[in-house]
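Hi all, posting the design record for the shared folder.

TITLE: backbone redesign
STEP: 1 of 1
STRUCTURE INPUT:
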């Protein structure tokens, strides 16, 4: 092969190689251009996932707050119901006790009247008077054990909330409106008047 032919072959080879290089160059450029887009797409997915997780976390936190509020409300409601039930029970006991006491008051009045009218100088009646007095004392003591107190306001200033004034009388040494005679003793339960005392007071 002559030198000219060798040169022609080499030139032909170089030409083919150059054409192949030119043919593949756009693909390489295209590959290089696609790589950043892929990275950006993956980054976008991660950002979206983080945002979604953040939203779910916020919803979960809101749900926790709501549940805590419901628990607090339920606890307060339960405490109110317990307190209300206790007050209702206490009120019922007071009403029942008051009715029971009111039913027994005439008995106490009768015993007091009997004691005041029995002739204690009479030996035949002395023992009976003593028995009646002990019975009356036992009843008053039983009242006191459950908070029922007898009111015998002699010497006190009349109080319309506690005393029922039935008459007035001017007596030397007695102030106006002072209780001088108790005709019927009153009773109170824990500071609440069950029956006012029936009294006579001094007049001005």
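Okay, here is what came back for every position:
SEQUENCE:
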């Amino acid at each position: 092969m002559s030198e000219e032919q060798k040169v022609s072959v080499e030139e032909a080879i170089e030409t083919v190689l150059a054409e192949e290089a030119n043919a593949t160059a756009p693909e390489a450029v295209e590959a290089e251009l696609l790589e950043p887009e892929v990275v950006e797409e993956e980054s976008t997915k991660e950002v979206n996932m983080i945002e979604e997780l953040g939203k779910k976390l916020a919803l979960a936190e809101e749900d926790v707050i709501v549940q805590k509020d419901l628990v607090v409300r339920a606890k307060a409601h339960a405490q109110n119901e317990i307190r209300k039930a206790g007050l209702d029970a206490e009120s019922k006991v007071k009403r029942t006790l008051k009715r029971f006491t009111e039913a027994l008051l005439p008995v106490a009045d009768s015993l007091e009247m009997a004691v005041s009218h029995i002739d204690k100088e009479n030996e035949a009646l002395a023992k009976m008077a003593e028995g009646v007095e002990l019975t009356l004392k036992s009843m008053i003591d039983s009242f006191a054990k459950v908070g029922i107190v007898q009111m015998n306001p002699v010497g006190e200033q009349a109080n319309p909330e506690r005393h029922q004034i039935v008459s007035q009388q001017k007596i030397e040494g007695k102030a106006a409106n002072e209780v001088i005679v108790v005709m019927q003793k009153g009773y109170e339960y824990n500071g609440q008047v069950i029956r006012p005392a029936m009294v006579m007071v001094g007049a001005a």
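COMMENT: The chain has two domains: 3-146, 149-204.
Let me know if anyone wants the other runs.
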